[in-house]
Amino acid sequence: MKRALRIAALAAGALVVGAHAQAPAPGQTFPWKTVRLVSGVSPGSASDTMARVISEKLQASLGQTVIVENRIGGGGIVGAASVAKAEPDGHTISVYTSSLTMVPFRPNPPFDAARDLAPVAVIATIPNVLIVSPAKGWNTLQDLVAAAKARPGQLTYGSAGVGTSTHMGAEKFRYAAGIEVVHVPYKGAPEVVADVLAGRIDFNFAPAVAVMGPIREGKLRAFAVGAAKRARALPTVPTTVEEGYPGSDYNFWVGLLVASKTPRETVERLNDEVNKVMQLADVRERVERLGAEVLTLSRADFATMIKEEFEENAKLVKAAGIKLE
To answer: Do domains 34-125+252-320 and 128-225 have the same CATH topology?
Structure first.
């Protein structure tokens, strides 16, 4: 018994020493250690790609090592949950998407999306592009809708996971078009695109980041962009609204969030540094080359955007009968 108590005491002491080793020295300000950008999706997915675009520049700006760490699962929710529970000092940052605003509607969510994470900054918006394989024989979006209505519940669409931006973008379109199709969730966007290319999935609302190459090569057909306006990278592709489906646009943003108790001055510093990075000419060029569009907001405006999306999604989930299991 005494030996067990000694071991426990030694272990506790080690934890205390470790905690002090990570604490800032007197006079030190953020950041005083490695900054981790936690990506909850597969490498090659939209938000993961954006994280890697900014990590090097943010490292130079902050004067500390910045790394991208993948914690994959649940369409990004596993990574976000780990950040929500992390030490609230700004060194652990979630690179998440508008999928955040669907977390409250999941059964037994692992964290409170409105309470446990604090918005830091938006990186970019990424238009979702409705893609199909040319082998399907459809030439227009109307052809696809007609096929879905002729065979209700038989056509399939893929997503990067339940509640993700690719899922919700497709659900907004499904509801607006009045079609019944089957949702097939995957672990990430690259896996879905591979199955659309192979013809195993009928269609997908894919982030432009993931499909610009195959579209340019003619391996995929881009029928429409599921955003409020046409994508700069695909100027000849109409929006789903232009194609006659009002209310089908979806705001797919990628942004940074931290644990909610992170000091306000740290959050504001991060917002300022990220916004500066996103205005760099080479960063903007890389982002736009991927088919995304830079968006910078104040911390307060980002928080307002998220709040409004929580409210809009609550209405959509109820009206469209969306299941997030």
So the answer is: yes
User: Phi and psi of 308, rounded to 5°?
Assistant: -65, -35
Phi, psi of 274 (to 5 degrees): -65, -45
Q: Are 48 and 71 in contact (CB under 8 A)?
A: no
The reply to whether CATH 3.40.190.150 applies to domain 34-125+252-320 is yes
The full DSSP string for 171-222 is: HHHHHHHT---EEEE-SSHHHHHHHHHTTSSSEEEEEHHHHHHHHHTTSSEE
Q: Which CATH superfamily is domain 128-225 in?
A: Periplasmic binding protein-like II (3.40.190.10)
Is the entire prediction scored with pTM above 0.85? Answer: no
The vertex-203 CA angle with 190 and 173, nearest 5°, equals: 110
Is residue 295 within 8 Å of residue 311, measured between CB atoms? no
For residue 227, give the 3-state DSSP assignment: coil
The upper half-sphere exposure of residue 139, i.e. CA atoms within 13 Å in the direction of its Cβ, equals: 0
Intra-chain end-to-end CA distance of the chain, in Å = 47
How far apart, in whole angstroms, are the C-alpha atoms of residue 105 and residue 306? 14
User: Where in the chain are the domains?
Assistant: 34-125+252-320, 128-225
Per-residue pLDDT of 212-252, as tens digits, reads 899 999 999 999 999 999 998 899 999 999 999 999 999 99
